[in-house]
Amino acid sequence: MDTSSFRSFTPREPHTGTPREPAPPTPFISFVKPQGQLYNYDRHKPHKDQPVNIPKGFLDAMSVREKVYVEEQGVALENEFDNDDHRSCHWVIYASVNETISPAVLDPQTGALLRARRSTSTALPIGTIRLVPFPHEAHPRNGGIYLNGVLTNVGDPVRPRSSETVKALEPQEIQGGNRRNSLYIRDFPTTFHNGQEPYVKLGRLAVLKEYRNKGIAGQLVRTAISWMQTHYTVFNPSPTVLGFDRLGVDVTGQLPKWRGLFCIHAQEDAVKIWERYGFQVDDKMGKWFEEGIPHVGMWLRVEVGKGGHTVI
């Protein structure tokens, strides 16, 4: 976990007169890089009962997700953690919350301060977002019902398949639905995706109930988008790592590169929220259900190589 964004908080103590109220929460965001040591994360247990080698930043993200998705929305605990978590970037936003250890003591006759209030500051995780690199599974089927990422109504006539769709889905179905080992994405085209262009996926946006409508979600979304704009090559395959240089093969221009395309699988009730940040609903993706919750696809394209959220 990168803790460079943590700030030190010193509670203010009154020197004279009436003690001050605790300072309002001051949000700050921490980046949690992709983790390789989540293989022993037990999806059947809450974040507080996980092995000690799980990074604290990721556990903080899960604490918010459990509150929002598991407790509020009824998602099964074992389905909240998924196979994308270990390879994803996470951001966690914290509030510095002052807690009183002992109250101030005033002279009952004069009102003079006899003992200052003692307090401590706690970094409370209040929101999180996740960014999943490419490649991804195929776009969800219109009318599909997914549990823990698995399509459960495979045999149902959820959508008549065109010849174009059948051709695009063949590689996925032959390989059991997992195409992440492939560098090349082949999917059915949608309104905003041609079925081939690499894209990154935002999701797991969650903010604790008592901190909503305060701009927290917007801070998280803008931070993730801006980070990707300035780190736009970080997920591109390396010819050296893949061994093409040893083979003397020039693959320049042939390997997939991210060119500014974001996707989200948005809960239907959250469409208006994502539209605030420039995302547009993809009508050709239709609607499907994840953990019993209706979802739609939304897309955003941004400039790469620049900081800040610049939509093009």
From TrEMBL:
This is Acyl-CoA N-acyltransferase. One of its GO terms (molecular function) is acyltransferase activity, transferring groups other than amino-acyl groups. Residues 198-303 form the N-acetyltransferase domain. It comes from the Eukaryota. InterPro entries: Acyl_CoA_acyltransferase, GNAT_dom. The lineage of its organism: Eukaryota, Fungi, Dikarya, Ascomycota, Pezizomycotina. Residues 1-26 are annotated as: Disordered. Gene3D superfamilies: 3.40.630.30.
